[in-house]
């Protein structure tokens, strides 16, 4: 028993000798804000414009523009950039123009459907400077269904809303973070 007490006392003295209890106080400085991603210096407000040039027109342009603006605004705590869909002249520091080129069902298996959505997008400052661009990017989006056949898949409740959200998330993350 005496050996255990002696070992405990030696461990405490060793810890105190190493300075574990007498470390200097931690720095109280606030952390630096995250860097502004992907060349968005000076851009605080983005106007989002969407056009659907696909033959099928399953996605609503106005709804997709709102989803893209919402996704940008969800990241505003990091990026310090906000988005909106108003169309007044000179509204915002930059314009994000998105064109949906195609909306196709890539593959359909029982209970699972994969969509291929192609889009092109440009982010341009109001002075005409190109900030970011992507051309004919394919987005594979997979959705599980209970029992749907491929012919009626676009008629599934909430599918268009879900696909719009998935497309907006991918587009915004590529724009902001290059992923």
Alpha-carbon distance between the termini?
A: 61 Å
Overall morphology: elongated
Which parts are unreliable, with pLDDT below 50 for 5 consecutive residues or more?
Answer: none
SSE pattern, N- to C-terminal: HEHHEEEEH
Strand content: 25-35%
Work out the helicity level: 25-40%
- Please identify the top-level CATH class: Alpha Beta
Question: What is the helix tally?
Answer: 4
CATH superfamily: Lipoprotein like domain
Structure, described:
This protein is an alpha/beta fold and 179 residues long. The protein has one domain: Lipoprotein like domain (Double Stranded RNA Binding Domain), CATH 3.30.160.150. 30% of the residues lie in helices and 31% in strands. It has a 5-stranded mixed beta sheet with strand order 2-1-3-4-5, with helices on one face. Helix 2 crosses helix 4. The radius of gyration is 26 Å and the shape is elongated.
List the helices and strands and how they pair.
Layout: H1 2-18, E1 45-52, H2 61-74, H3 76-79, E2 82-84, E3 94-109, E4 112-125, E5 130-144, H4 159-177
Parallel strand pairs: 1-2, 1-3
Antiparallel strand pairs: 3-4, 4-5
What attributes characterize this protein structure?
4 helices; 5-stranded mixed β-sheet; alpha/beta; Double Stranded RNA Binding Domain; 179 residues; 30% helix
Q: Could you give a quick summary of the protein structure above?
A:
The chain is of the alpha/beta class and 179 residues long. It has four helices and five strands; from the N terminus they run αβααββββα.
């Amino acid at each position: 028993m005496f050996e255990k007490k002696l070992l405990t006392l030696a461990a405490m003295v060793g810890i105190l000798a190493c300075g574990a209890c007498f470390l200097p106080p931690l720095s109280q400085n606030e952390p630096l804000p995250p860097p502004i991603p992907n060349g968005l210096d000076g851009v605080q407000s983005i106007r989002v414009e969407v056009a659907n040039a696909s033959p099928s027109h399953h996605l609503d342009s106005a709804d997709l523009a709102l989803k893209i603006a919402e996704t940008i605004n969800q990241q505003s705590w990091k990026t310090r950039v906000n988005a909106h869909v108003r169309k007044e002249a000179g509204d915002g520091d930059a314009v994000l123009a998105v064109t949906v080129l195609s909306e196709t069902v890539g593959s359909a298996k029982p209970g699972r459907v994969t969509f291929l959505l192609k889009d092109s997008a440009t982010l341009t400052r109001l002075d005409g400077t190109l900030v970011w661009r992507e051309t004919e990017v394919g987005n594979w989006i997979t959705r599980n269904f209970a029992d749907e056949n491929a012919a009626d898949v676009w008629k599934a409740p909430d599918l268009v809303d879900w696909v719009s959200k998935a497309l907006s998330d991918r587009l915004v993350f590529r724009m902001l973070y290059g992923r």
